[in-house]
Design brief:
- The chain is an alpha/beta fold.
- It has nine helices and eleven strands.
Length: 233
């Protein structure tokens, strides 16, 4: 991967292949991922997209959603650099949301120091206070509802969704209502705000999902990872 080894401390874990290992440990309990379709929602520069591509095998696919053009540029380089895995990844340069069209987006262009990972839709419930993002630029980015993309045949429905969208989790889920209702994908999401946890749990329990917290020992007061799975009562 194209990484500045002296950038974010997380990059060394990515180089070692150990970043967010708890996600992959948790998914192992739900069966083999070979041949599956995985959506990487908020793909950043592609660490998880490439890791998922290695797990789904030649018969599977990864759909990578990323709206920050700076992240997209780096993601494209990483896809090209990893030719075998890259063939299994389809890049969608848009934000999954609750509407089709475009939306205001706050972004950092600095990929190497990690700040571009904090880019977010303007109405997101971000993990940091507004002043934290003072250096971010305001842009318009394309948005799409998962339900629209699947209904129009533009992407295959997922068996697994990884969501990391800096406080826009409920927007993604609202736009994915029919996909979740019909296909029941496993969801791994980083929740970036206490209020967002309420919204996410309300949305998913209404669709007969159960939620568990992942990597609880490293959860922060304002954020945590959850895994959600369909569990009809």
């Amino acid at each position: 991967m194209y990484l500045d080894q002296h950038g974010s401390p997380a990059w060394s874990e990515m180089i070692d292949g150990a970043y967010d290992q708890f996600i992959y440990d948790a998914l192992r309990h739900y069966g083999d991922l070979q041949g599956k379709t995985i959506w990487d929602v908020g793909a950043h520069f592609g660490y998880h997209s490439l890791a998922f591509a290695s797990l789904v095998g030649a018969s599977g696919q990864v759909i990578a959603f990323e709206p920050n053009p700076c992240n997209v540029e780096r993601l494209e380089k990483n896809i090209v650099r990893n030719e075998k895995l890259g063939k299994r990844i389809a890049l969608m340069a848009c934000a999954l949301a609750d509407s089709d069209g475009e939306a205001a987006f706050s972004l950092s262009e600095n990929v190497d120091n990690g700040s571009s990972s904090g880019s977010h839709l303007a109405h997101a419930l971000t993990p940091e206070i507004k002043e934290h993002y003072w250096s971010f630029a305001a842009r318009k980015v394309p948005t799409a509802r998962a339900d629209t993309l699947v209904a129009q045949g533009k992407v295959a429905p997922p068996q697994v969704m990884k969501i990391d969208v800096e406080g826009a989790e409920s927007m993604v889920l609202l736009g994915s209502h029919e996909v979740l209702r019909q296909y029941h994908p496993i969801i791994v999401a980083e929740i970036h705000n206490v209020l967002m946890m309420y919204h996410v749990q309300k949305l998913l329990t209404a669709l007969q999902y159960d939620l568990i917290v992942l990597d609880e020992q490293h959860a922060l007061p304002s954020r945590c990872f959850v895994l959600a799975f369909y569990s009809p009562k």
